[in-house]
Amino acid sequence: MSGITDFADKLAAANTAYVETFDSIEIWPGSFQFFTEDVGNINATSMSIGYTEDLAQARTMKPGQDRAFDGLRAYAASYDLEEVYAALRLERIKVQNDSSGRITRELQRFVQRGASIINTKVWTKLTANTVTGPDGVALLSTAHPNGDGGATQSNKTTDALSHASYNAGKAAMRSYTRENGEDLDMTASHLFVHPDEERIAKEITGAERPVSVDNAGAVDTGTRIGVTSITNVYQGDTTVVVTPKITSGDWLLMDLTKPGVRPWALGHGAPMQAAYPDERDDYVVRKLAMLEWVISGDIAHGPGHWQAAYGKLS
Q1: How many other CB atoms are found less than 10 A from the CB of residue 163?
Q2: What's the 3-state SS for 162-228?
Q3: CA 247 to chain centre
Q4: 4-23 vs 102-114: helix axis angle to the nearest 10?
Q5: Coil, strand, or helix at residue 279?
Q6: Strand blocks (E) in the chain
Q7: Which of the residues 110, 123, 223, 258 has an alpha carbon 20 to 30 A from that of 283?
Q8: Distance separating alpha carbons of residues 119 and 281, to the nearest angstrom
Q9: CA-CA-CA-CA torsion for 170, 119, 264, 37, nearest 10 degrees?
């Protein structure tokens, strides 16, 4: 029969495994690491981010003429600090009478699954595409302000991923400009897709393309008698990242080559920590005959540089 001492020993062993597994996590994993700028610790209830774009134009100096000086346009946004967590509750009687070590293994798996908390919350907010960014609109929008001469610019499409829409996305990113007409020189380096789009994404970015040929060897004309392949000119340009966190049918191109320029910003308040019941007289145990384990931390996050992204979000 399991007694109080036996229960305490089992709980201590389970908690030790739980904490050791948690402490083994050096970097919180997930594809969010690719596209977020970590702005560090936050000692307030919200995170303020900002960046500037210089409006200086290339001019020719003429003797005796005063130099023309241009200024900056500043962008800023504030995102509230919020607690994110994963919580597990188990019946006291099952823990106390576990003789197989199953509870300990389950707690280790809980920590391993819980390690994706930040990844899940970042992707959830990003794919909702409802948070206002530093320029006053959502991350993906058809109306980003302050383009060439004050024109709006678009980094949003409704087209499914295809060779044509991929080409259009790369071209759009290359065409982004500052207000003074200077090129931003954005180049797509990563393509994020759902597993359903993995094949088409890799065909677009890597595979040679099969094409039909006619009797004279011309491509796609006349009576087609066979096929050949042509080299994919985009081969090796873009890294495909497959993640179930993005909705099937959606896709995102991102330029992740420029230091400090990312489409998403992330700051930290209270660090991620692991809480656990440490004794039989724990309040929840006495009141509910349950045991609770919680992984939690405080983060603030939201859109950063919209120019580093292009794509489709449902």
Answers
A1: 13
A2: CHHHHHHHHHHHHHCECCCCCECCCCCCEEEECHHHHHHHHHHHCCCEEEEEECCCCECCCCEEEEE
A3: 13
A4: 30
A5: coil
A6: 36-41, 46-54, 72-80, 82-91, 190-193, 209-214, 224-230, 239-242, 251-254, 264-268, 273-275, 290-303, 309-312
A7: 110
A8: 35
A9: -110
Residue 223 φ/ψ, nearest 5 degrees: -80, 120
Q: Give rounded-to-5 percent helix, strand, coil for the chain.
A: 30, 30, 40
pLDDT at position 281 is 63
Listed residue (160, 153, 170, 166) closest to 306, CA to CA: 153
Q: Which phi and psi angles does 103 have, rounded to 5°?
A: -65, -45
Per-residue pLDDT reduced to its tens digit, 235-284? 668 999 999 999 999 999 999 999 999 999 999 999 999 999 877 666 77
- Between 274 and 285, where is the model more confident? 274
